[in-house]
Amino acid sequence: MENVIAVVDRTEDVELRGEMMERGVMEMIAPDEAPVIEGISPLVRSNTVTVENSPVKSGRGGDEAGIATSINPGIQEAKAMQSPPSSKPAKSTQDEEGISSASSSNGASTTTNDRPITPASPAPESRKRIVIAGLGMVAVAFIEKLLKLDERRNEYSLLVLGEEPHIAYNRVGLTSYFEHREVERLYLNPQSWYDDQYKLGKLNYMLSTTVAGIDPVGKVVTVHSTINVPATPIITKYPIAPISGDAQPPPVVNTIPYDILVIATGSSALAPTSTPGHAAPGVFLYRALGDLDGLITYSSQPHIKGSTGAVVGGGLLGLEAAKAMLDLANFGKVVIFDKNKWVLSRQLDEDAGRLVGEKIRQLGVDLMSEKRVKVIKTKKYEVETGTEGVVGVEFEDGGEMDIGCICYAIGIKPRDELARAAGLSCSERGGILVNDELQTSSPGIYAIGECASWNKETYGLIAPGVEMADVLAFNLTQAKSHTSRTFKRPDLSTKLKLLGVDVASFGDYFADRDGPSSVMVPRRGGKGGTQQVKALTYKDPFAGVYKKYIFTADGKKLLGGMMIGDTRDYIKLVAMVKNKKELDVPPGEFILGSKKSGDDGEDADELDDDTQICSCHNVTKGDIVQVVKDGSCKSIGEVKACTKAGTGCAGCMPLVQGIFNCEMKKLGVEVSNHLCPHFAYSRIDLFNIISVKKYTTLPEVMSAIGKTPDSLGCEVCKPALASIFASLHNHHVLSTPHAHLQDTNDKYLGNIQRNGTFSVVPRVAGGEITPDKLIVIGNVAKKYGLYCKITGGQRIDMFGARKQDLVDIWTTLVAAGMESGHAYAKSLRTIKSCVGTTWCRFGVGDSVGLAIRLENRYKSIRSPHKLKSAVSGCVRECAEAQNKDFGLIATDKGYNIYVGGNGGSKPRHGDLLIKDCPPDEVIPILDRYLMFYIRTADRLQRTARWLEALPGGVKYLREVILEDKLGIAKDLEEQMSVLVSTYFCEWAEVVHDQAKQERFRQFANIDPKSASGEALATITPPPESENEKELEARLVRPVDLADNGIEIIQERGQLRPAYWPSGSGSEGIDFRSLTFTGPMSWEPIIHSSKLETSDTAPTASVAVKRGDTQLAIFHVRGRGYFATQQMCPHKRAFVLSDGLIGDDPSKPGQLWVSCPQHKRNFELAPPTSTTPSSDNSCHPQAMAGGCITDPALSVKMFKVELRDDEMLYIELPPVEELDAVLGTKRWIVRDGEAGEGPFGSLDRKLEKEREERMKGMKGRKGVKVADGGSPPKTSPGKKEGIIVGGGCGVGVDW
């Protein structure tokens, strides 16, 4: 049976499902109303799955034929943001990761009198995405704070990734789980809270998801989601928690983009990896719910009941673990092994620690101090279970003890491995280094909680983490209008109940031992600082109470202390330390007067509002008072939910209750990977569906699987689908069904430049070119005034070609035997090479010959992104093959093939795919590699990012490409063979096709052979003796300024467009509201045949010229004609007619044209009046000409009619009046608008240095520094600089 890799999110199409299943395709079902296919479990996220149709070999995974054994690289990159809040939320699923397709327009807020202007909330697609790695207590604290602070601005959309299968729970109260066994009671927020935030479009989350990698440059994270799903469908928008079962699905891998990344991965429990027996059944850590579940299950076994349960570690976690074992009631005895002399040695001194130890023993727990476990003894229980288990321990001092279970709580370590792998700076002692703003060494990435190292210190308590969350949430939301906050040395005060014993430490509680760290007491160095403090100690052995308070030597300030047994003064004392106020009573009264405080909170009214009540969540008395006074909280439960007070360790609850009672008495009485809004599928899904169903046009695809069958698509899905069609069928991109899908570069077979002209790049395979072809290139550049540059890819690029000159230019090049270099396409660009054995004495392989063969094989093949390659003739690597999408290095046995490398913003060294590959095997291996990439990469995903996110990385790729693990190697080779065999030069086709040439007219209503359509001015190379003035005089055939948009200047003997100014120059002009005083008249502009459409090509557009004004006319089949100005006001670009027309399925009737340069989308609608609607409503007519993606911009719309004579008539004002406001000359970007050139200052410095050098050099002439700064200015009597076609383009798409 033929194997096909395919993925669909919905399979309502029974025919499609049947055809796919017949061909051996397994479907992956997303949770949005997905039907169930017998024998296939629905996964939370869609991805490509490989189906094995042959018996599965040992180690391959799966136990019978037809079972999914591995995930193919369906790397699904989330692109847009969450849907906005509405009364009826748009349908959205979890695999959208909070990414919905609805777009909206923002209207400006109206204000009256002196009321401040409240900025409108940004549209969801303009919000910044914050990805939070980790879903623990600190992460939830950050989310809650940010949601609250961002409520007005609505700047952010949040996606939180949780490694555990649970939503955030109270880790501090973990021990209580043994009492009730209900995980929901530990949740910090109920499930409904997450549901509500999701529906509001504010928060999305993924459970059982591990962040596997961070790309700080590309701003994406790679995540692995391992979710064991049930055999029956669970229809939910949220991740499904793991359930019991043997079948474990393979991990789902995604790359998720972010604007801001917050790392809150916390810490992990230290494991005794050096202790023999540490991995045996019966050895546990004490950190997460999973640890507790394992301990519960293990201890319930018959052979364990009644045995001794042991805990290693006498710290906070160790005592918690001992309490847990007691609560289980399965052990006959519980014992603690502590390597220190007393428990809680980090929080208590020896006297306090020994007192706690005595209390622990009184509760029935054995405590063995200064004990270190050397070996964990195990044996097999043949009769009971047949498995191995713990039976005892051997100590380093030689003693032994029989035990049935052992739990380690010996400390924690920051989880910084993710940051280290991403190149972020980390502390040698562990933790991600952050500054006072919690930012890591990489901009846009922050770390909070136990994983963060501030001043090279990490904190294992919840309170510092919550404080970090507060600081970061504030700065992200409020720092624009407030002074930003900084994180300061945190208060490490702790109050807990451990094994029934009240324990607290606060402030600088070891100041008497280590010297004061507080700024209140200047340290004199070393322990000499202890002379600056005095300690007051109280010990009651009968009541089990111990108190030690540390003061400055003069007794005027409290520095810190510790309390055992009686901790009722804790809140007051912590506040006193923080306030750093001088005491108004003698120190001794703190002991004598402590009994005045009560657990019932009767003295709560005496506390200041800024007194911290809950240290876990940094809640003050004022926070509690406020929510009670304003009526938002009428019960203690509502106070806890609103402020989070008491939801951590709960030690503050008596005081919280007291404050609540007091205030009530005074009063007398709560991350999709979908391609775009038009499809509920990723690029990978669409590729496979189109491949299976053999769709060839956008209307076919839209009708079959689009959200709205008659939709036009948009600037995202149109080029993506065009690329898929080209990769599968290799039809000409300018054929009738496909031309309207192409972005501007493919539409005109050249990269559009910032002045609206295009590049001309003939292919120079392998970098080898003949002198004759060099001469042709030179003549073409000379004739058409093109700027020339040798590129890093070993070819010659020519810039500045006008659209109407492209056909003539390429006619000359094609006649000389040259082909398109596809520099405009997402396809193979170049294969660079050194000279290899052709000339080099060190060469061991013919690198030029192989490069030429490979480039001629793979040229023109469309892929998800551009491809670059290189071949080096030896290990000296002159061609830099290891940083290419695929590169080859010659060896004495063949070629080493590297894949997944790239330069650019995030350079990546390629991975070795195969070593010493025989030359005959190079092409089959590359065929498989490239086709596998084309099939499985996401939209605009380079091979480097694809390989990084590939499950199993290059190892898995080797299995697929070299070992044929998936059984598709033959299919991949055959598919590539089809593409190679159907190759044609796209420009050669245009040169011989009159119909295609019509697309390259500048103005549809002007004869291209007229004067205004002549070629650009050109420059003839002058003799060496010719000066600059004579050079300028040699310019020939200057073009009328009316046809152009940016002034052309001379620089280093070549022509280039003037620099753009920092602003557009059209700021503040609302083109929509332009009015005219002269009489409006209907004028025939163009015959309707110039804008023909069809069922397969439903849109068309042209540019026309009337006087000095350029207009763009659009035809949308079934919706009519639209006319607007040709100039995009963003950069004064005369290019709108070249833009793609799109619509939004969630807003019927809305159309827009997307500027091809910077994707500003302007709404197309017939104007009903000369002034837009004052209410700025979303009705298409009211928004005619408005910019959907940038509300500050707009264009003028004109009424247009098709009349009986088949001419299109446009209602226009007099020519002079229209030219005065929209004429090309009015908006020309002129030299000097940008100010001094970028090198003006540098050139003056270099010239001055040159002059100084020349003073001491006799008989030698200085050489003038090349003008790289301000271009020569036009003076009276000289020609003005030449102006060429308009445009607000982007740089060269290398």
TrEMBL record:
GO terms, biological process: energy derivation by oxidation of organic compounds; nitrate assimilation
Enzyme class, one word?
oxidoreductase
Checking InterPro entries in the record gives: BFD-like_2Fe2S-bd_dom, BFD-like_2Fe2S-bd_dom_sf, FAD/NAD-bd_sf, FAD/NAD-binding_dom, FAD/NAD-linked_Rdtase_dimer_sf, NasD-like, NiRdtase/SiRdtase_haem-b_fer, Nit/Sulf_reduc_fer-like_dom_sf
| Coiled coil, from the record | none
| Compositional bias segments (type: Basic and acidic residues) | 1242-1255
What family is this?
Belongs to the nitrite and sulfite reductase 4Fe-4S domain family.
Organism taxonomic ancestry: Eukaryota, Fungi, Dikarya, Ascomycota, Pezizomycotina
Instruction: Please report the organism this UniProt entry assigns to the protein.
Output: Terfezia boudieri ATCC MYA-4762
Q: Which UniProt keywords apply?
A: 2Fe-2S, 4Fe-4S, FAD, Flavoprotein, Heme, Iron, Iron-sulfur, Metal-binding, Nitrate assimilation, Oxidoreductase
Which EC number(s) are documented for this chain? 1.7.1.4
**Domain Rieske, which positions?**
1082-1165
Q: According to the UniProt record, where is the region Disordered?
A: 78-124, 1238-1286
Start-end of Polar residues biased regions: 83-92
PANTHER family the UniProt entry points to: NITRITE REDUCTASE (NADH) LARGE SUBUNIT
Mind telling me which Pfam families this protein's record contains?
A: Fer2_BFD, NIR_SIR, NIR_SIR_ferr, Pyr_redox_2, Rieske_2
Please state what the protein is called. Nitrite reductase [NAD(P)H]
Could you tell me which SUPFAM superfamilies the record lists for this protein? FAD/NAD(P)-binding domain (SSF51905), ISP domain (SSF50022), Nitrite and sulphite reductase 4Fe-4S domain-like (SSF56014), Nitrite/Sulfite reductase N-terminal domain-like (SSF55124)
* Domain of life, per lineage: Eukaryota
